[in-house]
Design goal:
Strand order of the largest sheet: 72-73-74-75-76-77-79-82-83-86-87-88
Radius of gyration: 50 Å
Low-confidence stretches: 1-20
Strand content: over 45%
Distance between the termini: 111 Å
CATH class of one domain: Mainly Beta
Structural class: mainly beta
CATH superfamily of one domain: Autotransporter beta-domain
Shape: elongated
Mean pLDDT: 93
Helix content: under 10%
Number of strands: 88
Length: 1067
Amino acid sequence: MLSTSVLSMGAYGHLRSANAANECGVIAAGGTATCTPAGNNFTTGIDYDVNDATVVVQDGVVVSTTANNTSAIANGAVGANLGSLTTTTQGAVNLSTTGDGSQGIYAGSLNGSVIITTSENTTITTTGDGSTGITAASGGGNALTIIAPAAITTSGTGSNGISTLNTGGATIINVGTITATGGGATTGIYAQSVGGTIDLTTSGVNTPNGYGIIAIASGVGSGTVNVTTTGAVSALANGIIAGSQFGDTIINAGAPVNVTAVGVAAIFGAGTTGSVTINSVGATATGAGSIGIIANVTTGNISITDSGTVTSGGYGVYSLSTGGSTNINVNNVTASNNYAAVNAISGTNLSITASGLVTATGGSFSDGIYGVAIAGAATVQTADITADDDGINVYGATGATVTTTGTITAGDDGIEVSTGAAGDATITVNNVTATGANNDAIEVTAGGTATVTVNGAVLGGATSAGGDGIDIQTGTLATITINGGGSVGALSDFAIDTDGAGATTLNNSGTITGSIVLSGNGDTLNNLSSNSINLRRFTDTDADGVRDTEAVAILDFGAGTDTFDNSATGTLRLSTVTGATAFNTTNETFATGSASLSLTNEGVEQGHILNLETFINSGTITLADTETGGMTAIAGDVLAITSLGVPGGVGTSNFISNGGELHLDTVLDTGAIDTTDVLILDTVTTGVGGATGITITDAGGAGGITGTGATDGIRVVEVRGVGSASDAFTLSRAVVGGIFEYELNQADGQNWYLQSDGTIATQIPAYQALPLALSGFARDQMPWAQKRWGHVEGRQQAKTGAWLRGGFVRGSEEFTGANQYESRDRFVQAGYDVVLDAELPGQLSIGGLVQHTSTDTSITNGNGSTFSASGYGAGVSAYWTAGSGLFTEALATLTRYEINIDRPNLAGVADTEAYTYSAGLQVGHQLHVAGETDRWTVTPRTSLTYIDSNIDSFTDASGIAVDFVESDSMLLEAGMISGLDLDLKGNRVLNLSAEIGIEQDLLGGNAITANAVNFTADRDDTRATFGAGATAHLGENFSIFARAEGSASLSGEGYSRRATAGLKITF
């Protein structure tokens, strides 16, 4: 896989200096040679070949050699038994060589330890080809130690920064930054151990034309290889290569590792029986076929952790362990040139966690994550993945678990999971999209159970031949759960396919859109979601991303005993299709007597639920276009539920009405040809929840009389099998076509029909009554002087003052035939009257008032419609009295109402607003009858009042357009008031009064249009009026009063009863 074999590289040996030795004085075995800067005459280097020698180079020494095969400092010799050797530099020491095959420092002994220590201010520079900054060799199981914090720089071709060879002992290297700029087989640090261990630490390596770090332990007894970097490693070829034949390999890269050549690796850890552990913070391998991080062992375990970003021209992370376990934990990984971002093969258990973005591009092998657990379980946890091939492809012999929390976007399958013969597969996903042809968003092949949980949006690929949202191909049992907020679909419009798996349980609390094919082994579908199952078959057949072909939507349960439980919170929709350019009408079915509209008609769809034994409906089934994606109601949809594989014959599927709803679009007409959505069933029974309520939306019918015979009307539910419970369906809300009321009847004892016998819509009498009631409200609240003051001011002087009164009115009115309404009116009024100092005979006062009214009115005689009104208004008055008992008054009010109209089975059928105007004039004369002054008076009076209501037109919830053509009244009233004043203690007076009169409506009627049909409302024209009251004058300026009044029709049953009370304060 790598372009250069790491085991083929050897350490450089030391060639003796061409000049003299013992430059710092002759020493005995075990002695110390100290080199001082005096004279600095080390032009041929410093060279000692003494047993157990220690060479110390002091601060200020400069060694610069030019000859080939020389060392600036040499302590020991190649292949010699010289015991333990120590080489040390102190302070600022400058070592440089320019000849080929030379070393900055060389130390070597076959039978002792080797220690090289340089100061931080020591510089080592070589420029010749084949040269090395530091070369060291030891043997006999002895340690080799290099402590060199200073910078080391080489620039010759094939030159290394550090080269070591140790046989049997421990190698310890702790160095600063290494720079090796030469080409060829250049290496920043090369450490080789035969039968020993390596512990290597560096501040960083820069080899733009060669290798970065190579640390290899081989042979019997080879132990741990530990490579730690604290600074960046940049190389042309491999960045870090570390391996132990029989020990563990550990790489801790504390800074990013970058390589640029083709077919190399940024980080490579290898072994056989030991484990490989790689910890890094980023790796970049930009060359084609290069790998960011690779780990390869035979029987050991692998652990890879990268917290940065891995970018490669080949595999991002590649791991192979044929006998051990593998644990990979990465952040961001990017692979290109048709390689997987993470590729892992593990002998036993495999665990892959990717917390950032995983990207793989380049072609059909560009998986985001590819994993195989040969003899164990596979676990994958990811965030976001974008891949040209599979997003995740994983196999676990004993089981596989995949969990995603981000978004998976794949050019092939989004997630592909497989297991061994008894392995369970568990998949939990957020968003998954497979964009290609015939590609599944989630594909499962399990030897044991298959469990899929969806928390986000899952979208499968295109074409009619494949591309499922979820495809469970094998498994002993299958469980699919769509959680709230989750959704499943596909461009093929095959959302879920478990054909080939064991018994399937599908729990939907989210949204499923498309067709569904289940296992055929006894399946259960629990629909808990108001977001619904959206049955549809609208396919992108050419994988261009645009759906083009519509066909019959299917939900096929296959063989076995199956149940569809549409729970109280569940919704099943037959989705509206728009924009289809091709159609497949195979297996279409139609209800008897229907218009047989094919799905080739815009807005007409068919859905078939097949091979199903039991459908329990406690929720909502809707074919109504405005609820299924359409813009307006279009009739003609068919939903068939059957035990058969193709609808058309007599099946045995049982539809259990357990409450719930059925929503349909219907052209409401005479039913000569049924143009309606229809539910086709095998058999129907009624559950404990009762009938399923049907809601009808008018799809453009003008209404009509269908008749009420056995097959008259519009068939909306067709039952083809044996058994049809008579109480299985009912209307949830009123059905009105044009102006006609429709009822739901099982007219033939088998099927359900909408039938109209010509009865007008129930709410129309309420519309007729509305202007009459508003007129009655205004009449009953008319604040004439005697009503707002509590008595008549005819002879006495009126006074400036404020008044307040409230009242309750209960009334009833007959209109147009047997129609009648009852109303309950509550009002409060407050006003202020001012006596004017006018140069007129008698006395003139003017006043203003405000009022609030709330009313409730119901249409009686079994109709049940109601309306309520709440209004605020104001008024003005002018009152003149001659002082002799003659008086006259002009009065006007304006009230704005907000009106809500209800009817049985259709609350909130309409809302509107109205302004009611009233203007009246009354004239009366108060006559003295007996007693001192005005103790007993009789006041004949007459009044003329005009009332008009301007009511806004509207179209109600049944589609009836209502316009109020005429809504005014002219009331002429004549009557008499009799009053009696009684003195009370304390300067108090009690006034008792009674009145009687007759009222005639000179206009007499009102008119509306409903869907352009005229309706008039004639009220009772003549009424008798009567009342009695008492006013207590509790002092000169304060009085309270109460009145009871009423009216009764002289030609019918209309009446009103009023009770009012108030007070007046004068000034």
